[in-house]
Structures are given as structure tokens and as C-alpha cells.
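Subgroup meeting minutes
Present: P.N., E.W., G.H.
Scribe: E.W.

1. P.N. recapped why we're keeping a running log of single-chain structure predictions: easier to compare across weeks, and new members can see raw inputs and outputs side by side.
2. G.H. added today's entry (384 aa).
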Amino acid sequence: LGHASPVVWGDRVFVTTAIPFGDKVEPVPDDAPGAHDNAPVDRHQDFAVLAIDRRTGAVLWQRSLFKGLPPAGAHNSASLASGSPITDGESLFAYFGSLGIYCLDMTGKLRWKQDLGDMSVKHGHGEGASPVLHGDTLVVNWDHEGQSFLVAMDKRTGARRWRVERSEVTSWSTPIVVTHAGKQQLIVAGTSCVRGHDLKTGELIWQCRGLSNNIVASPVAADGMVIIGSSYVRRAMLAIRLEGASGDITDTDRVAWRRTRRTPYVPSPLLHGRWVYFLNHYQGVLSRIDAKTGKEPLGPFRVQGAFNIYASPVAAKDRIYVTDREGLTVVMSHTDGVPKILAQNQLDDGFSASAAIVGEDLFLRGHHFLYCLARPEKRPRQGK
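Output recorded in log:
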């Protein structure tokens, strides 16, 4: 089990997981302020990485990184392995929050590990942000109920390059890196502000207020524009022009548009062509707006049959794929007109991880199985 998305490099697929083992023990205390709806952790866990053959599904290697009881549990709809791994084809980085970040080579050998401390997550709902890798810099967003911070590390050694403290509470949003005017910016969403940092130094470039609490969705960006949405207690979406963005831009024309309806909570937006697609909170209602103007000429659209959706929508060519927690994937047309439902495909599983599309293969990480969906004539032989 794990809600981390699969990542693919060459002929390998990598997933992270937490595997319960041994007899039941006294549960890890669920004592965070306001704790509710959390699943008790009453067995030891093996936090591990699996490398899987892309063609056959065979497990090539499985590397255990930590065995024991985690310091806290998670919401009953979450998992203990929700941060996705990341790779550059030379190293694989697996992040388990309070249990550390681990760098492996492509054979599963440990190169280095770093302990960043113990995270105190709001309501004890679990950890979920993924690390971001750009060039030789690896960054972790550590937003929690204690002192929040961003930390950048050398991907080769794990040595710290910089650390910036943040006036933020818990978030589960993974940052992105955007190149603008020849400089790499680290874009990080938060309850107080969305911020842009210089990736090289960590220096704050700009910030913008306006999101809600409990930030989960990640930003998207293209053509000098960053778009981020949230939807807890209130609805909010911002589109920020990076050109000329400096200091506090909240009440300036660097904010291209704002939106307060049907914004996403758990699944991130999808930027595809001129359109931004996003789900209402985490339900099966899809909105589509013009990325530059924020206008919505048509919609919203019902994703027929899909209900609770944690996975972010993905796209390939002229198709949009939306996968829900009950095992249904709805395929919709990507068009300037009304999107049409092209297919509804049901698997006997549940899905919280976002899909990975590589070439003509679609990888879905379920609660029980990993799936590779391919053209019939290119379908690999069966494997587990």
C-alpha cells in the first residue's frame, strides 16, 4: 500500500510503500491537536522501495530503508507512503518525511540518507509532499505545525546547500521549479502565501496571499504563468505572472486572475495546451478555463461515474484521464468544444496515486496492484 505515484525511467518502474509486519502492538498515539478520522498504526512497518520491470511487471529488487513504528499515523484515507519518489536515471530519491530522505543508486544500493527531524502534521493526518529535483539540487518542503522550512541539498552527497524558514502551517503540496528570465525559481504553495524562491540561494523573490487552509494541490506553470488552487473551508485559485514579480504582489497586476468557484483540494490542476483542467474539491466535476485569462467559456462538465478523486488528472495528446478511488478511469476528449466521454474503464482496485504516462504506456498504482496499460499489440506478457 502507498499513495505515492509510480515513476518510470527506461525499463524500470519505481514505487515506495510501507509494509506492515509482525504481531499487533500498542497503537502509535493519535495525540495531535484536533486528531480525527485517523487509522491506528498497530503493527511495525517496513518502509521500502521496489524496482519493477516495465515490460513484465517482475520485481527486480526491493530495498528496505526503515523498519519499525513510525512516529505518527495518517488519515484513514491516506497512507504511510504518500510522498512520490524521484529519479534522474542515476540516483533514486525516496522520501518518508519524519523517517528521512534516502538516495539509492539504480541497483538499490544506499548512497546517503538525511534525517530532517520529526514532523508534527495538522490533526495527525499524515505526511505527503514529495521532493523536487532540478539539476543537481534536491529540495524538500517541510511545512508542519512546528517551525516550517525549505531545505535544498546536493543530490550527490545530501549536503545542505541552503535552508529557509517559513511562516507556514501544515501543507501537503509538492513544489515545482520554473525557469524564468534565465533563472530557476522554486514555486511553493502555502496557507499564508504562494512564494517564489531563487533555487540557487533560497532567497525569496516574490510572495502572494490568497489561498485557503490545508494546501494539498501542487502548482502548474507554463509561458511565464503560475497557477495554483486550494479548497478547504473556502475556494481559491490564483494565476501569477512571473514577469516583473517582486516582493509582495498580492494587490498588484502580477496577479492575472483569481477564482473562487469549484477549485481543487486534493488533485492538482492539469495544464494542457491553452486550458487548465481541475476537479471540484475532489469530486467528479471538471472545470476547464483559459490559462491566460481565467475565463470559462464552457462547463463545468460531469465526469460521469467518477466520485471521490485523489489522483490528479493527466493528459496524452487529445485525451484527458481521470481516475477515482473506486477504480474507475474516465477518458475524455481534449478539445476546444465540449469534452466528450470516450471510455469508462473499471478495475477491481482503488486508486489514490496519480498515473504516469510514458510513451504509449499508462501506469496506474492501485491500493493492491501496479498496472501497465498498453495497446493490445504491444501488451507485455503477464507478470507480478
